[in-house]
Design brief:
This protein is α/β, with parallel strands linked by helices. The protein has 23 helices and 30 strands. The structure holds ligand LLP.
Length: 734
């Protein structure tokens, strides 16, 4: 059961020059290992023995057995093709640059999208499963104005000797059209022959998998040749291609009969050779689609032993760190395997115990082998299961939160990582985050970004850029603001941006609409227009001075104007959130003389820790606290520290701790000011929290510095939400 390059030295198993135990440590377990020499040997056997001088022989590797770019590269090197079953398969294959004209597409329920993809990417052969499919294919080929080469999958009704789940050619099987249903077959042939777009090259059949007798293939081949001849005669046409599928078995354990791949494929070519002249067949190409026989016995899996157990009933278990999640075959087909302890291979049967080797899942069926004589094991031994190269990785799952192990190819003294081990983050990759933790971001330039993109002619910016981020983020609400550059039609821009927001795909997301600067507000009264559009928040300036007040980077002696004071009072009357961020200190205090409700400073940090003009002094924090205002700490690099090396999450957390020490936990919140999406400000946020998807790291940091869960929730969410939930004008629950 061992692969070509495996050997035992001092009771230790090696593949090529690598000790299995060392590979297990280096790549972690479960680990799938392929012996590349073994794969190449199998491909050589096929190349040498699947041959004829009467027609072309084409081997098409069945990717369902195992697929990765490195494997495709080897197949390509041998000039062989690939078989695929779905658009997903086609996508992976196409992405690798494999020539699509050497690809065969199967499937008993191909979707329109799959067929379109196949046609657009010029897949070599589409294997049509049934009558209705040919009708749909014809329609799509016509739409795409492309000629398509097809084979018809037929079912020769041959019962191959294998597990019932992998028999495919019973009269009751779901695949293809029966060769006995002559009317239907003729109808399909006629349809294809009449079509301008479809070329029916011939037929395909696959009688099952893991078949051990060459005779089954011999029978299938002669049945199909007879069938082909009949169809040709009935329909007065000829066919060039016969694809006989895969299914050549391998020897999994000593109890299996030995299998000779060469004689299996010769059973096919010999049968055809003897028919072809006698029957005057016009066959030009014969295809086979082996999967298991190429990679099955070339691969094995390594596990680490976690411990052993003897039950009250006397059964002995060996526990390992994988099982049904990396190899479902024992659970699904009662498949039998052979195993060894790789770091202690003991051929002496007397020293063995009868054990079940099982995995960690919450399933009694999580089994690798049962009642198996195994060398005595201890914790951290490495167990090897042989012959797992086919339908192991490809049928693996993340059940019970198990990550898929890495896949390596070993070729003598080279080891090639072909698929990396999954990380826990991979488990969450496709999940729409509905975290228990939530954050409210009191400053986002969302509206400005939406307006900018829309005016550049880019549609669906919100759905395409922001929804994917926010749906993965702990941020569950935000003040979306519109920035106000010079000469800008603020009201018109707001209208454009608002139309771009579509919260439907965000679970439970809340939005307050805000304004970052009012330099373009023509008069105080116009604030009502914005209020009526839903705006409930405004900063009076950005860093500039304008007719209402003075920003942080302008004349420090100038503060609010009379107009500005009128504006503040109107905002207060309307119950708007008055955001003092961006004001210079004089304006900041001027405002607090006039208004004392609904005050926030949405994005700024502690001046004592970083003397940025936009950060706040201790006195400003105290003044904010006095009016029960909020300070929103921000992730802009240069607000965190002047020293680039110190622009870290840890340093940001120091700002948080300091702000809490002055203001208490009830008056601090966050205004992140993410700039990943603003083309003028790349890399302006902390690298560790570079966009909304990483906001969870702040919560982790807050836990690390010892804040209680209650305080974390206050700072992250409740401090803002409790005060201002009535200002929320959009939620995804609407
Ligand atoms: N071609 C077609 C159309 C197939 O359906 C299959 C396998 C093959 C080729 C490749 O068969 P192979 O040479 O690998 O036996 N998960 C099962 C095997 C399912 C096979 C499905 N079709 C197992 O683990 O035994």
């Amino acid at each position: 059961m061992r692969t070509i390059s495996m050997k035992v030295q001092n009771n230790e198993l090696y593949v090529g020059s690598f000790k299995l135990q060392e590979l297990a440590t280096r790549y972690k377990t479960p680990l799938y290992v392929y012996d590349e020499k073994h794969i190449r040997h199998k491909l050589d056997v096929l190349k040498e023995n699947f041959q004829s001088n009467k027609y072309e022989c084409m081997t098409v590797y069945a990717t369902k057995a195992f697929l990765c770019p490195y494997m495709m590269q080897i197949i390509h090197e041998y000039g062989m093709g690939l078989d695929s079953v779905s658009e997903g398969d086609l996508y992976i294959i196409n992405r690798s640059g494999f020539p699509m004209e050497k690809v065969v597409l199967h499937g008993n329920n191909k979707t329109t999208s799959e067929l379109k993809y196949a046609i657009k990417h010029h897949v070599g052969y589409i294997v049509v499963d049934h009558l209705e499919e040919i009708e749909e294919l014809e329609k799509i080929a016509q739409e795409e104005n492309t000629k398509v080469s097809i084979l018809l999958r037929v079912n020769p009704g041959i019962s191959a000797h294998t597990h019932e789940y992998i028999q495919t050619s019973l009269l009751s099987s779901k695949f293809g059209e029966s060769i006995f249903d002559k009317d239907k077959i003729d109808k399909i042939v006629k349809k294809a022959n009449e079509s301008q777009y479809l070329t029916l090259l011939g037929f395909h059949s696959h009688i099952g998998s893991n078949i051990h007798q060459p005779k089954s293939f011999q029978d299938a081949t002669s049945t199909l040749l007879n069938f082909m001849k009949d169809v040709e005669e009935r329909n007065n046409c000829s066919f060039e291609v016969l694809n006989l599928g895969g299914g050549f078995g391998i020897q999994y354990t000593n109890e299996d009969t030995e299998i000779d791949l060469a004689s299996m494929v010769k059973a096919i070519t010999n049968t055809i050779d003897s028919f072809i002249d006698k029957y005057h067949l016009s066959l030009k190409k014969v295809m086979i689609e082996p999967g298991r026989s190429i990679v099955g016995d070339a691969g094995f899996t390594l596990y680490t032993v976690g411990g052993t157990k003897k039950t009250y009933g006397g059964k002995k278990y060996v526990f390992v760190d994988g099982g049904m999640t990396d190899n479902i075959r024992p659970a699904l087909y009662q498949a039998k395997y052979s195993v060894d302890i790789a770091n202690h291979v003991d051929e002496n049967i007397q020293d063995k115990e009868i054990v079940d080797v099982v995995g960690p899942c919450c399933e009694s069926g999580d089994i690798i082998v049962t009642d198996y004589p195994l060398t005595k094991v201890k914790e951290n031994d490495v167990l090897v299961t042989y012959c797992t190269g086919a339908y192991g990785y490809s049928m693996s799952s993340n059940y019970n939160g198990m990550v898929r192990g890495a896949v390596i190819f070993v070729n003598n003294d080279h080891v090639h990582l072909t698929i990396r081990r999954e990380e826990y983050e991979d488990l969450c990759r496709t999940m729409i985050s509905t975290p228990i933790k939530r954050m409210f971001d009191c400053h986002s330039d969302m509206l400005y970004d939406l307006w900018t993109n829309k005016t550049k002619g880019i549609d669906h910016r919100f759905e395409k850029y922001h929804v994917p981020q926010l749906s993965q983020s702990v941020i569950k609400g935000s003040i979306f603001t519109m920035y106000s550059p010079n000469d800008f039609d603020l009201i018109e821009a707001c209208k454009i941006a608002l139309k771009e927001i579509n919260l439907k795909e965000l679970a439970n997301f809340k939005v307050v609409l805000g304004l970052e600067g009012l330099r373009n507000l023509k008069c105080v009264e116009d604030i009502d227009i914005l209020y009526n559009m839903g705006f409930r928040h405004a900063m009076v300036t950005w860093n500039e001075e304008n007719k209402y007040a003075t920003g942080a980077k302008s004349n420090p002696e100038r503060g609010f104007t009379e107009e500005g004071i009128r504006l503040l009072k109107r905002m207060e009357q309307l119950g708007m959130i008055i955001d003092l961020a961006h004001l210079n200190e004089k304006s900041f205090y001027d405002a607090l003389k006039v208004v004392n409700k609904n005050i926030i400073y949405s994005h700024g940090n502690v001046k004592k820790l970083c003397s940025h003009v936009r950060n706040v002094t201790d006195d400003q924090m105290k003044a904010l606290k006095k009016v029960d205002g909020l300070l929103g700490l921000t992730l802009a690099n240069n607000f965190v520290d002047k020293d680039e090396n110190n622009q870290t999450l840890d340093r940001f957390l120091e700002h948080l701790k300091y702000a809490i020490s002055i203001m208490g936990v009830d008056n601090v919140c966050f205004g992140f000011d993410f700039m990943d999406y603003l083309s003028d400000f790349p890399n302006s946020n902390l690298e560790e929290v570079k966009d909304a998807t990483f906001a969870y790291r702040i919560i982790e940091g807050m836990q690390k510095i010892g804040l209680s869960e209650e305080d974390i929730d206050k700072i992250c969410y409740q401090n803002f939400y409790r005060r201002y939930h009535d200002k929320i004008v959009m939620t995804s629950e609407d």
